[in-house]
Structures are given as C-alpha cells and as structure tokens.
Design goal:
It is built from ten helices and 17 strands. With 420 residues, it is α+β, with helices and mostly antiparallel strands. Strand 13 and strand 14 form a beta hairpin. Helix 6 packs across helix 7 and helix 8 packs antiparallel against helix 9.
C-alpha cells in the first residue's frame, strides 16, 4: 500500500494548480443567524476528526496531517476564502454565509459531494437544534454520533479481485472540446467562472426518465448533447464525461473518502434527430459497460501504483511534478461536457428548511446535480457571460416538456488553497 495517509495524495496536484476546490451552496427558507451558525458549526465539525486536520511536510518531503485544536472558521459574506491559511485556522474546510445562504468550502482531497454531505447535514441539524427547532435526526449524523470503521474505510488494492471486465469501450479523440471558450475567458479582464442555478421538479422528471428508458444521468447527457448540436452546428462529434462513484465496488460503500472515476459516452451529429429516449438508451448501455466492478478494481490498482510512485520521489517538488505529470484525474479523455450527480441524499427532518443545494466546482460546461425530496438542483457551470449553451439547454428542456426555473448568472467564487 502507499506509505502515507489516503487523503494526502491529491495535495501534490493541488499545490501546483487549484482545480480541486469545492463549494457547496445550501439555500435555506429563512435568514441566517450568524452567531448561532458559528457555534453550531464548531460543534458539528469536531465530530469529523478526519477533516479537522492541518497539512505539513515531513523529512521525506511528503505531505502529512496533524490534528487541529482550532474551530472551523465561519465567515460572513459570500467570498472566495483561502483554505489552509490563518483565515481558516489552517484547515482545508470553512463555512461562509450571506442572507439565507450557507457556503461549505473544502479541498477535494478529503471528500467529494457524497462525503461532504454528512458534515453539511450535521452542521445544519446542529444549527436548527441550537435555534430551538425540533428536527428529526433520522438519516443524519449528529454531533455525538459515534464514528464507525466503515465510515473511515479505504480500499486495499492488493486484495481486490483481478477478473476481466466483459468488454470495454473504445473512444476516439476527435470530439469538440471547448478550448476557445476558455481562451476568451482568459482574455476578458472582467471574465468570470459563473453558474446558473436551475431547479426542476423531481417527480415529473423521474416519470419522464422512466417513460424514456432513462436515469437522471442519461437523460441529462442526452439533453446536453442536443444542446451542443444547437449551439455548435458545425461540430460533428461530442463526448460526455460522467462521474462514477466506485466506493462500493472496492469494498467501501460507506466511506467518507472520494473515489470517483469517469465514464464516457460519445455521440455523432447523425444522432441529433433521434428522440431523447433513443439517445438515453444508448447512453445507459454504454454506461453499464463502464460501471462493471472489475473496471473499478483495475482503476483502484492504478491509483495505488500512482501513489506508490509519488512516495518514491525524493523530495516535495519531485513528488508534485510526478503527481501533476501523471495525474489519472486530469489525463482522462478530453470531453465536450461533464455531468456529476451526487446521488440520493436523505435530508430527513432538514427537508422543510432547505430551498436549494448547489455544488460549485472548477470547470466549464459542467453540470453538477443535487436533489432533495421535491427538486433536482442543477448547477450549470460556464465561463461564458452571453448565455450561449444555457439558452440552447433550456430550449431542449422546453421541447421535452420539462418544467424548470433558472436564476441569474452568478460568480462561483471558489475557495483557493494554500499548502506548505
């Protein structure tokens, strides 16, 4: 196994490029009390000792974690906080708030959307409890819920089966990639990494997905393909990258740790006249091939080998260079657009208080999806300010009879990360 903490290895990439920061916006149905939030956040965060750590460098030039006895920072105002600094008490987690919005910022090395939702729910439960509300805690880890081994589990790559997957997908490298959008964003002194918050009623969309042989991922993938054809009629091929959480495949279904790999589906412009149902069916069939546990086990072994090679480098700079040059995350198939769905999250007694959940990350033409019992909350990320892509996406939804509400373009204001 790799030599150091499972959560430490992404830090080497983070040191060179800030593409692994996450900010989750929770919209409440009432104005926030900052003083109560500060106290509740401190109580809740103490439960998650595996998050409550700072980063240092040891004699071998490796990143290690040390326990932190300071509280999580709770900052007024929607801003880009700098994780790992005095502003956040050295922690790679922080909370900010504005009006009825709470922003949970963190570094991706510890967890992704799934793992962070536990901390977020605990914080919200503690906040409303401290306000004197009676909140049903079913499905919620409260501040005094014991930590289990399963919650902290990590895969043992050496013990995973080595069975061959039944078939593999082959991909071409000739799909549209939105490089020019990034270039224009870099040249614009007033450019922004923006997002549009979109809300879609859950029950009608699930019925639509069922009626059209789909899942939320496959329906979105198909709709976004049709969006691309409308927005880019001169392009001939598009590739979607779909995040696949493989924790259960490697024996860690309940872990907080982030274990995600990408699945890909390619579409030819000749499919643009197909109904959503047919495109969704093709999408799901190609997803199923890539969802085989055997592929996850193989990927897990690659991650393990990659981390061992980082360990083998003689100093911090060498470890950083190796991690960036050989990254399994950023050296995947170039994609036209991406979809990341956190999956089913049980909000329990918190449901009546929540008006929206939006995951904000780095990326353009990336759709992040959350849900509660009533709605899907879609964060449509873009670096364009002229509405291109969004207009075409909404047009597709209207053509399919899918109801939605959409907010104004907003700045993500993602956290930055400072490391030793």
């Amino acid at each position: 196994m790799p030599k150091y903490d499972f959560d430490s290895y992404t830090l080497y990439e983070i040191r060179k490029r800030n593409v692994y920061s996450v900010k989750i916006r929770v919209v409440l149905k009432e104005q926030l009390n900052g003083a109560v939030l500060s106290g509740a956040a401190a109580k809740a965060f103490r439960r998650f000792h595996y998050y409550n750590r700072t980063v240092s460098v040891n004699d071998e030039g490796a990143y290690i974690f040390e326990p932190c006895d300071k509280p999580i920072a709770v900052i007024e105002g929607d801003k880009s906080v700098c994780l790992g600094t005095d502003e956040t008490n050295g922690l790679l987690f922080a909370i900010s708030y504005e009006q009825n919005n709470i922003f949970f910022s963190f570094a991706h090395n510890f967890c992704g959307g799934c793992g962070s939702m536990r901390w977020i729910k605990t914080t919200l439960w503690q906040y409303f409890t401290d306000l004197g509300r009676d909140v049903d805690k079913t499905g919620i880890m409260t501040s005094d819920t014991p930590i289990t081994e399963e919650e902290q589990s990590e895969p043992n790559a050496a013990s995973l089966p080595k069975d061959e997957a039944l078939g593999k997908m082959n991909f071409t490298m000739d799909s549209f990639i939105p490089q020019m959008d990034y270039m224009e964003r870099m040249k614009d002194p007033e450019g922004m990494d923006g997002y549009y918050p979109i809300r879609i009623p859950k029950e009608p969309l699930m019925k639509y997905a069922h009626d059209n042989d789909g899942s939320p991922n496959s329906i979105l993938a198909a709709a976004l393909f049709k969006m691309c054809v409308k927005a880019l009629p001169e392009e001939k091929k598009f590739t979607v990258g779909i995040a696949n959480n493989y924790r259960a495949d490697v024996g860690c279904p309940d872990t907080y740790r982030d274990m995600v790999r990408q699945m890909y589906v390619q579409y030819d412009v000749g499919m643009s006249d197909w109904p959503i149902e047919k495109i969704s069916t093709v999408t799901r069939s190609r997803m199923y091939i890539q969802m085989q546990p055997e592929i996850s086990c193989e990927y897990c072994r690659k991650v393990d080998d990659y981390r061992k090679q980082i360990d083998a480098q003689p100093d911090l700079e060498s470890k950083v260079d190796y991690a960036v040059d050989n990254s399994l995350t950023t050296h995947g198939l170039p994609s036209s657009y991406h979809i990341s769905y956190v999956g089913k999250v049980e909000w329990g007694g918190l449901e009546p208080f929540i008006d929206g959940i939006y995951s904000l990350t780095a990326g353009h033409l990336l759709v992040e999806v959350n849900a509660n019992a009533e709605y899907f909350f879609i964060n449509f990320q873009t670096v364009r300010k002229d509405g291109k892509y969004l207009k075409e996406f909404l047009q597709v939804l209207e053509e399919e009879g899918i109801a939605y509400t959409v907010g104004e373009l907003e700045d993500r204001k993602l956290p930055s990360i400072t490391l030793p």
